[in-house]
Amino acid sequence: MIGRRKRRDFLAVLGGAALSAWPLAVPAQRSGPMRRIGLIMAQAADDPDMPPRLAGFLQGLAQRGWIVDENVRIDYRWGASATEADRMHRAAAEVVSLAPDVIVANTGTIVGALELITQTTPIVFAGAIDPVGGGRVATLSRPGGNVTGFMSVEYSTAGKLLEVLKEVAPRTRTVAVARDPTTPGGIGQYAAIQATAPSLQMELSSISVRDPQEFERALTAFARASGGGLVVVLSALALARRQMFIKVAAQNGLPAVYPGRAFATDGGLVSYGPATTDVFRQAAGYVDRILKGEKPADLPVQAPTKYETVVNLKTAKALGLTIPPALLARADEVIE
Questions:
Q1: Could you tell me the pTM of the whole model?
Q2: Beta carbons of 259 and 232 less than 8 angstroms apart
Q3: Which strands, in side-by-side order, build the sheet including 228-232?
Q4: For the residues of 108-126, what is the DSSP string, one character each?
Q5: What is the DSSP letter of 302?
Q6: Which of 247, 263, 243 shows the shortest CA–CA distance to 309?
Q7: Distance CA 219, CA 326 (A)
Q8: Do 254 and 227 meet the contact criterion of CB atoms below 8 Å apart?
């Protein structure tokens, strides 16, 4: 458990102390040429969710003897969001032009942009939603090309979002599910939620996240009915527009459950999703293996092994909700 520290303190610990302390604990690899890693992130460098992810990645490298500016260099590109295609493709081209030994990207969309430029540079993703359905790899067990990595979600866990919503707001009967219906991830996660809904006596209404203005109109119309709630499934668009979801849910007084920690730290009620710090730490392990000569084609794609729950008590108070003690007890972080 991370502990009940406020958001600012949490980021200070992971984003500051962890970054400086870990590299000192492990000896560097034997002397040799400086290796080069390209790191492309969809979020901006000042995004509150970035320090923990970067800390996890650098910790994972340091555990294996890779010390920044001693035996490895990292070239960063931030803000390569799927909502700004030109910027994303420019970032991909810039990183490939630097001839890195391996590239790390945190969304499948960025991987797609990289694949248009190189079919030989090893690429490790740390957060692709559906790498097979999205055409990034041939199979999970045998990726088959220059791409491998760690998924950001397993579809079967999407039903847990609905269960958490029922726990937080027991009277909820109808649920708006915000998703991207044009992607395999949006389809697969919604199917898992549909399978869970009958046992919770909930009715679902799907709302597309493709058009922000249409989403706001649809959710506002949905909120006019009593007993409603919101579930947001994971997608690149959802992450990029998370502040919009949080704002519209608050304006309409809807209890909402989101698919990742960043939503709750930005003001969302509750989040349940993969521990992204752990995903990036694992990605560093694959980077290490590639730098030592292994091929992405031989490294199986892995699903998340650790999920975390984050509760925002300030938002709960604004909605007039009392978070059940059982949920607070198992929460990985409580924002006060």
A1: 0.84
A2: yes
A3: 203-208, 174-179, 228-232, 256-258, 270-274, 307-312, 333-335
A4: HHHHHHHHTT-SSS-EEEE
A5: B
A6: 263
A7: 30
A8: no
Residue 201: left if φ>0, alpha if ψ -120 to 50, beta else—which one? left
The C-alpha atoms of residue 271 and residue 178 are separated, in whole angstroms, by: 14
Q: Measuring CA to CA, how many Å separate 56 from each of 26, 147, 194, 277, 302? A: 15, 21, 34, 5, 17
Provide the token pair at 251. Answer: 């304006």
Distance CA 323, CA 271 (A): 13
Q: Determine the Cα angle at 305 with ends 301 and 308, to 5°.
A: 130
d(CA 39, CA 102): 9
Q: What is the pLDDT of residues 159-200, one digit of tens each?
A: 999 999 999 999 999 999 999 998 889 999 999 999 999 999
Q: Can you read off the two tokens belonging to residue 122?
A: 């090893």
Beta strands in 190-284 (DSSP E): 203-208, 228-232, 256-258, 270-274
CA distance 277 to 13: 13
Contact between 297 and 145 under an 8 Å Cβ cutoff? The reply is yes
Say which CATH architecture domain 155-258 belongs to: 3-Layer(aba) Sandwich (3.40)
Percent of the chain as helix, strand, coil, to the nearest 5 = 45, 20, 35
d(Cα 262, Cα 118) in Å, to the nearest integer? 31
State residue 203 phi and psi, 5-degree precision.
Answer: -105, 140
Question: Using one digit for the tens of pLDDT, what is the confidence trace for 108-162?
Answer: 989 999 999 999 999 999 989 889 988 899 999 999 999 999 998 889 899 999 9
Residue 175 DSSP SS3: strand
Domain ranges of the chain: 7-153+274-307, 155-258
Q: Which amino acid is at 317?
A: K
What is the 3-state secondary structure of 44-70? Answer: CCCCCCHHHHHHHHHHHHHHCCCCECC
Structure tokens at 117: 């430029």
Apex 252 CA angle, 250 and 255, nearest 5: 60
Residue 164: both structure tokens together: 């958490």
Supply the DSSP symbol for 15.
Answer: I
CATH architecture of 7-153+274-307: 3-Layer(aba) Sandwich (3.40)
